[in-house]
Design goal:
Layout: H1 11-36, E1 44-48, H2 54-62, E2 67-70, H3 73-82, E3 89-92, H4 101-107, E4 108-114, H5 117-130, E5 134-140, H6 160-169, E6 173-180, H7 192-209, E7 215-217, H8 224-230, E8 234-237, H9 239-242
Parallel strand pairs: 1-2, 1-8, 2-3, 3-4, 4-5, 5-6, 6-7
Pyridoxal-5'-phosphate (PLP) is lined by residues 48, 50, 71, 93-94, 181, 220-222, 236-240.
């Protein structure tokens, strides 16, 4: 076909692999939406590119991906700088130290892992200083006891209203919704659907006072189908698109 680029070695092979993986993930999201009676447009795929190089981010952008996520500031900042020419929106999804806030607000359009008031304050002053508006999600730890924090970050459900109010009032920040990771321990261990249903409940309650906080970020490679069934608006998928990462990240 005229104008079609030949498939080349290296990037071409990787591009083909990423395209096939993306198509499979897209099919899973579409199937889950159909089963749940949801419109496919209600769910946004965020591709988690942690541990993979900027060249993969570039290939993904070429395949139509627009939302990408990282969980470590140093790696994310470098990749975002390398791909600054691409029309990408960056999501920060990892546990975040307050001293990284200044860096993160420079490239991240969304931070999914807000789980304490000190972090709200740090992100707010950093965003204001940088002249940026950053969308924030409260990370909910469904394995944490009331008043406690989760093993992998997040706050227990009882702390969500206070954090949400603080985010909504913070200059430079916007309260966009809630995020969770299916717990590996506690009452919801091995029950991602029940966990995501609980997150949806907490989200409904939150929207009574913050109607614009509509993002429900839930579901990864293993459990994105359950997340879509439960009402997630954003799924964060790494392995199923990019491959198995070396090590436990
Ligand atoms: C790594 C990561 C993901 C993606 O996980 P996969 O199992 O590779 O799809 C999603 N969310 C967070 C917070 C992550 O750290």
């Amino acid at each position: 076909m005229a104008g079609r680029r030949p498939v080349t070695a290296g990037g071409g092979a990787r591009a083909g692999q990423l395209a096939a993986n993306l198509a499979r993930v897209e099919q899973r999201i579409a199937d889950a939406c159909r089963s749940a009676g949801r419109d496919r447009k209600e769910v946004t795929l965020i591709v988690v590119t942690k541990t993979y190089p900027a060249s993969d981010v570039r290939l993904l952008a070429g395949l139509g991906v627009r939302e990408v996520a990282e969980n470590r500031d140093q790696e994310a900042a470098a990749k975002a700088a390398d791909t600054a020419d691409l029309p990408l929106s960056w999501h920060f999804v990892g546990q975040l130290q307050t001293n990284k806030a200044r860096s993160v607000v420079r490239y991240a359009d969304h931070v999914h892992s807000v789980d304490r008031l000190r972090l709200v304050a740090a992100l707010s002053s950093a965003a204001t200083a940088a002249g940026r508006q950053v969308g924030c999600l409260v990370q909910v730890a469904l394995d944490a006891e009331a008043g406690d924090r989760g093993e992998r970050g997040g706050v227990a459900p009882d702390a969500v209203p206070a954090l949400a109010d603080a985010l909504a009032a913070a200059p430079g920040l916007r309260l966009d919704g809630l995020m969770t990771v299916a717990p590996l321990a506690g009452a919801y261990a091995g029950q991602p659907r029940a966990a995501f249903d609980r997150l949806t409940e907490i989200s409904s309650r939150l929207r009574e006072t913050h109607p614009a906080a509509t993002m429900v970020s839930a579901g990864m490679s293993q459990d994105l189908d359950d997340a879509v069934a439960a009402g997630a608006t954003h799924v964060r998928v790494g392995t199923a698109v990019l491959g198995v990462r070396p090590g436990l990240r």
